[in-house]
Fold this protein.
Amino acid sequence: MDRPDLSMTATPEQPQISGPHDILALLRAHAEEYWLVYHVLPVLSELERPRSIPEDQLGAALAYLEVLWLDSCRRAAETDAAYDRLAPAEAQPDRLLYEKARRYHAAVRRLRVATGHRVARRTRLPDDAFGHRHAHR
């Protein structure tokens, strides 16, 4: 006697749980936000305060900020790649995390752009190092 395989079917009473791309997009956005808030912004804030860093240490602090920001751009590319994997077919009403992933990604993009403008005022990195190509989706 053959039994139907019910493990992969979703019924109206049981909406399909969010897919792995929804979860991956949320995790990448969270990781990028964490990096910006807890690594980049503290260094940037210190550099923005007048005379908070001794003159002889200013060059090293700016170089450190540049390294942090270049790593931020790599993380932004990873976040955007995860976001791009959210297929339109996943925009079904029964997707629990799809909308949250979209909103979180948009919020992290805004934080990325705002931080990038502040970093640009302090460093001499080329324009394409600020993730603007990732910001206008």
Q: What stands out?
A: The radius of gyration is 20 Å. The chain has a mean pLDDT of 83. The helical segments are 20-48, 55-84, 98-122, 132-135. Residues 55-84 form the longest helix (30 residues).
